[in-house]
Known about the structure:
Elements: E1 9-13, H1 18-29, E2 33-38, H2 41-55, E3 59-63, H3 69-80, E4 85-90, H4 105-133, E5 136-141, H5 154-173, E6 179-184, H6 193-198, H7 204-207, H8 219-232
This protein binds NADP nicotinamide-adenine-dinucleotide phosphate.
Amino acid sequence: MSIQNSIGTAVVTGASSGIGAVYAGRFAQRGYDLLLIARDGKRLADLSSTISGKTGRKVVALSADLTNKPELLKVEDRIRSDKSISVLVNNAGFGGTKSLVDSSIDDLENMIALNVTALTRLKAAVLPSMIEQKSGAVINIASVVALNPEALNGTYSGSKAYVVNFTQALFETLKDTWVQAQAVPRVSDTRNPLDFHRGDRSHYGPVCRCGKSSSVPGAQKIAESAAALRRRIHMDAAQPDIIGEP
Length: 246
Ligand SMILES: NC(=O)c1ccc[n+]([C@@H]2O[C@H](COP(=O)([O-])OP(=O)(O)OC[C@H]3O[C@@H](n4cnc5c(N)ncnc54)[C@H](OP(=O)(O)O)[C@@H]3O)[C@@H](O)[C@H]2O)c1
């Protein structure tokens, strides 16, 4: 168990599973307290006590549906007034495997609400305090489909293209401040989320399979998009997508 002082609070949206749960664990290992957000309060509470038990960090679970405007506004109020927040990971998001024509319009609207609107509003809630304190980071989870619109439905790829453009603009806007902005291109496999939760390096093969697995449909195209996206956001080819082990 860690006894070091906190170096701030990391807010992670969509922390109850997958990539968000990995970010939560990694930031706690690095000495951050956590504010974890997702809809499933039970999963969040379980993860919070696991992380807290392992790291000794303070972990607060906040159950909220970020596509629900009143709930989103409550989350904004909560994080706007918390000066300890030094990192925001805008991770909550979802895609969908149905074609654009077959997709439910309500699902597509929710996708935009979560992947685009919530991400944008939460950034706006934390940024003034970070700029004032001359420190902080906003990490937005994108996807290689941002540059590969034929894959999946156009709403998902469009929402992730937004994340990339938005983060690039944010990066430029913040260049004279000490606040950082990062877009993360990811192709991962969350079919076995429990293994993914543990952040076990042996699962990094399938998790970070950009361009490595020829068994993935369209793998070559995805690999090309991933490489192009990494070039576009100035990410070194060897740099891991997700923060590494502490
Ligand atoms: N997996 C991939 O291959 C891949 C590739 C590229 C990019 N990404 C992106 O990476 C991010 C995380 O994906 P993942 O694969 O880790 O997915 P995941 O395991 O399904 O996790 C999504 C998280 O978002 C939360 N969430 C979903 N809807 C929400 C809502 N309305 N309000 C609040 N929280 C909500 C979920 O928790 P609750 O259900 O408890 O709310 C869950 O914690 C997403 O932005 C995704 O687009 C994933």
